[in-house]
Every structure is written in C-alpha cells, then in structure tokens.
Amino acid sequence: MTHRCLRRVVSTPTSQAQLPPAGVDPEVLEAEDKKWTPMKIAIWVAIALIGGIAWGVLAISRGETINAIWFVFAAVATYLIAYRFYSKYIEKKIAKPDDFRATPAEYKSNGKDFMPTDRRVLFGHHFAAIAGAGPLVGPVLAAQLGYLPGTLWIIIGVILAGAVQDYLVMFFSMRRGGRSLGQMAREELGLIGGTAALLATLTIMIIIVAILALVVVNALGESAWGVYSVALTIPIALFMGIYLRYIRPGKVMEISVIGFVLLMFAIISGRWVAESEWGSALFHLDRPVIAWAIIIYGFVAAVLPVWLLLAPRDYLSTFMKIGVIALLAIAIIVVRPEISVPAFSEYASRTDGPVVAGPLFPFLFVTIACGALSGFHALISSGTTPKLVEKERQTRFLGYGGMLMESFVAIMALVAAISIDRGIYFAMNSSAAATGGTVEGAVAFVNSLGLVGVNLTPDVLTELARNVGEESVVSRTGGAPTLAVGIAHIMNQWFGGTAMMGFWYHFAIMFEALFILTAVDAGTRVARFMLQDALGNFIPKFKDTSWRLGAWICTALMVAGWGYILILGVTDPLGGINTFFPLFGIANQLLAALALAVVMTIVARRGNFKHLWVVIVPLVFATVVTTVASLYKIFSPVPAIGYWAQNAAFRKALDEGKESFGTAKTVEAMEAVVRNTTVQGTLSIIFLVLTLTVIVTAIIATIRSFPNGRGDETEDPAVESRIYAPAGVISSPAEKELEKQWANLPAELQPTRAKH
C-alpha cells in the first residue's frame, strides 16, 4: 500500500490538512541521491584511494613491524563506502521504507516501552545495548592468530553479514509492531520452526548475558579502583535519570556535561579510595562476590523504569564508548605505534593456542563474535529499538550504521591488543591454571611457548602492574584488562607519559565495564520481553509488558538462568572465559544464522527473490561456520577443544582416584571441570539442533513462497503517520525544508517524542 492510499483510508482526529507531509516525496529523495557534483565525486574518489592504499599495506606488508594508522584508514574508508552504497542498495531493493507510514512507536505510543525517540538519542541507546563484550573481548582473544585474519573478518564480515542482519531484523520487527525475534519466527515458520526458534533464542540469550557478565567480573576482580569507579556509575546514572525527568526536563547537553564531570571524578578519586585502608577493605572484592553483585544488579536494572537507569546509563556509556574509541583512533594517528605482531602468527596454522584452542577456521569467526556478526544484536533489534523508532527510513542509520560503529570498536580493540608486547599479551590471557597466577609462573609458561622474538622477564610484568596501579596483571583473562593495557600504552605516549598509565588503564576499565553492563541490563530486559512473548502464547496475560508481576517473574527466571552460568564461569578451574567464550561465540553466531533465516523467509514472502542473495550469502556462511565449530566442540577427541573429550578425561582421572589432573589441582577443581563441561557440551548440542531446525523450516517456507511470495500478512496494518523526522544525523536539503514546516506549527500540533 502506498502512502497516497494511506492518506485516503486513514482518518485522524486532527485534519491532515493542518499538518505538513509526514515524509519527503520519494521522487525528490531519489533525485537528491542521484545528484553527483564534482566535489562529491572527488571526495568519494579520495576515500576509495585512501582505503585501497591502506588495504594494500595491510595485505602485502610482511616486515618486522607495521604502522597502526593503516588499520584506522582501511576501516573508516571501507565503512563509509559500504554505508553510502551497499546499505542504500539494501534500503531500496529489500526494505523499501515508507515514511508516510506510522511506526509502532507512534501508533502504539504509551510513554513506556513504545515512544517516538529522537534518532540521535536512539542511536545512543541502540549502540549502547548492542556493543557489549564481543567487540572488546573477541578481537583481543583472536589476536593470538595475528593481525590480518581478524582485520579481514571484522571489516568484511560486518559489511556483508552483521550490519545486514541488524538492519533488516530491526526493519521487519518494526513493521510487526516491535515483536521479538522468537515471536516473528513463530509467525513466519509455523509451530515446529517457531517453537524451536523461541527455545533457541531464550537459551542462547542466557549464555550470552552470562559471558557478558563474566567479562565484567574478570575485569573488576581484585581491583578496588575498578570496583569503586564502576559502582559509582550507578548512582550517577540514577541522578541523570531523575535530573532529566523532574529537575531539568529536556536539558540533554546540560546533564551530559554534569555526567562527564562525575565520571571523571569517579575515575580520579578511585586511586585515592583504592590506596586508602578503608577503600581497599571495602572494594577489593573476590570474583564470586562481584558475580553475585552483578546478578542482583541485573535483576534490579531490568525491572526499574527505562528512564530511571537504563536510558541515562546507555546515554552516558555511549558518550564514553564513542568518545574513547574516537580518542583512541586520533591517538593512533598521532602516536603511530608500530605493531610487531605478524600478519599470521604461529598459531594461525596450529590448534593448540593457549588463549583460544582450535584451528583458524572456524574458531576465528566465532571468537570475534560481536565485531562482525552477532545474533545478540538481532534480539536488541527486535526487542527495544523497533519500539522507539520515529520513522521507517531511520532504521538504516540505526541498524546498519550502528553495527558499523561497533565494528570500528572491534578494530580499535584489535589494534590496542596487538600494540603491546606479545609476551605480556600471553601472560595476561593465559589461564591461572597455566601460569600458576604468579609472575614467575607466567614468565616460565610464556617463554616455554617458543614464540619468535618473545623473551619475557619478571621485571616487565611487575613494572607494568605498578604503572597501571594493580597488584598483578598475570592471568587477567577475559580480554578487558589486556585492552585496557593496550589503550593505556597508546594514550600515555600521547598524553601524560608513564605517570598517567594508571589513570588511562582504569579509565579504560570503567569504559569497558560501562560498555558491557549496559548490554547486561539491556539484555536482561530483552530476555524478559522474549520470555513474556513465549509464555503469552499459553497465558495471554504475560503478553502485557506493563503487568508488573509478570515482568518480575520473567526477569527473575532469566536472571537465575544466566546467573547460574556466570557462577560456573567464575569458579571454573580452567579459566572461565577461556572455556566459556567459545560457547558464547558459537551460540551468538548460531543465533545470527537463526535471525538471517527468519529474514530470508520474510523477504521471500514479499516475493523479492531477485535480491534474496543479500540475505542468503551471510546465512550460508554463518550456518557453515557455526555448524563446523559446534561439531568440533561436541566431537573433537582433543580435550583442549572438545567439551565431551575433556569431560571424559577428567571423569576417568576421578574414577582412578587421582587428586589432581592437568590444570585442576584438587578433587573439587576436577569435579568442577566435569560439571562445567557437561553443561557446555549439552548446551552445544541443544543450540545446534534447535538452530538447524529453524534453518530447515525457513528453507522450506522460502521454497513454498516461490515464485510470487505470499504477501506480508504478518505485518501490522498500515497506519498513517502524523509526525516527521529526518532519516540520518545530517538532514538533506529536502529534509531541512520539511523540518522548517514542522517547526513552524503551533505548539499543540507539535509531535511528542522522547528526549532521553
């Protein structure tokens, strides 16, 4: 139905004649898009040349070092070209948005879950929710393979897979009233595929949120400075929410400045507190204690009103995230650090990596989860964001653009990780079971790896720990501490010198913890929506998201699920992140394959088979990668790779009466390995079976739609829009003209939208 038809059939309380158009005429937009001036051509040629040169250096260079600026230039140039051309192609050929059609944020607006939200603020909310541990941790762990494999996957993967998934899931969810991915699958794929999708999304969500939380625990464990600074961000966010809601409504810039000042105070005062006797006693916490604190926080944050904690924390952390990554990119250009890590390391052709075990294919692609393709994003793109989008054309900026920004975060994380000494890298990312948790043990272990050019000494590790204000940096697994060291290493060369390394390190730790905690609370909230959707199929009352009791019950169930996995990871003798992160990566990518399968079915039902390849290409790749990775984890006879092989080895050792085995030094530790590998192996089988069931039913549904499709019968009925907003950050000339018309309306006719 075109927007002209919409205007004929939809009546409104206020005459449409009183309002300007709800969108720019599509023919005007098309003319603007096709208008190429000499200046415009020159700019895009320059971008292409810079990107081409940078890629040439990265691909060909095999010297002792390579300058880090080429990573920045290659990434930024490629992202700009992909956003301008490929995402526009997807918009025109597949999504086909219509700004004259109201979004659910407009026609379902209730001031709570549904409300038109300024696109710039919503970009912050969305980016904060999707950008969790993956783009920070995955590239750091994958750095053991060298710089080139990770760089290629992060940049090419996001353009052809990750951003495509995020954009189309968001668009199709928005067209369906903001329904969750599992509910969309149930409607598109029928009982079998839909039920499998609901179960898969719920169970995978549990493992994803658990690992996100585990990264925070590992970053803050035994760090009084880090615990204090991150804990202080909670009352800061609460204050910002109350300030914008009641004290100074709409004063976003004002509270941004106040929030930034308070954040700086939290970091700077952290050193004083950590070095004091009372502060060290109060905030120097063991990891299980921090884990329980995060479990409690996750429940409370998910049931509080969005405006009180989630929105201001997202807004605050988005400023931190984008600001820090931009600052890091500028610092790299200024400092121009030389990278000594080879393009392909010794472990690129081996399977015994001390950080992540297994061959490059498929484990590179599941280790770098969120930076290139993330199923978790599909849950956010079908959870909170589509309920807040003002206009349909904004989904390209939010979905595709938001994912490109996350990919840039991943590239910066990779550069930071490979900028530090390789010996330090392996000392920090090898498990305590391998290093013994001591400087001497770490030195002995790293030097025994036989890495070219690596000769680690105890002085290097003790001096680094002293410079960053920590007791030790040995076996600080999880990626976050390594990234913090990398950021501090680059930033102190630009500003402050060695004396500022402690500040920059803890600044980065708080930046990362904010990054990840926003994903934990947003993920828990989305998981609650998903469970309510699922239970609502049997008990309709649960579909009412404003029903407080139902919300509390579903939140408690989901928190109990991921909290259990978190405790297993924290107490894992093999180094929780080293063994649990591959499961996180595989589950995440399986979820991405599931999401792409649902999108494929929807596109096919629209009858758009000519452009179905845009979805099929990433779907096939994700399915192959995750299936092969799952089969490795289930059937590999190598204990370091296969969960069941590891389980069998430790069971045998227990049956033989051994009191220690491998890296487990006690009977309790051996029993913990058996318990954890049983959970991991079982989940691997469940995830794979459910996902393949969904993909098969999606293929059948797609084939049945051939050749003419079956229509968009699962979309919400079209409603005429009565508000207007531009599609991107910068308005086009036609959009500016229409904005003026809306700005000149009387106050009583101005649309109401969320400001924070």
From TrEMBL:
Q: Where is the CstA N-terminal domain?
A: 67-629
The main location is membrane
> How does the UniProt record describe the way this protein sits in the membrane?
Multi-pass membrane protein
Does Plastid show up as a keyword for this record?
no
In the record, biological process GO terms are:
cellular response to starvation
Q: Where in the cell is it found?
A: Cell membrane
Q: Per the record's keyword annotation, is Transferase included, yes or no?
A: no
User: Cellular component GO terms, alphabetically?
Assistant: plasma membrane
Q: Where are the transmembrane segments?
A: 41-60, 66-86, 122-145, 151-169, 189-217, 223-243, 255-274, 289-311, 318-335, 355-376, 397-420, 503-520, 549-568, 580-604, 611-635, 683-703
**InterPro entries named in the record:** CstA (IPR051605), CstA_N (IPR003706)
The UniProt keywords, alphabetically, are: Cell membrane, Membrane, Transmembrane, Transmembrane helix, Transport
Q: Which family does it belong to?
A: Belongs to the peptide transporter carbon starvation (CstA) (TC 2.A.114) family.
Q: What is this protein called?
A: Carbon starvation protein A
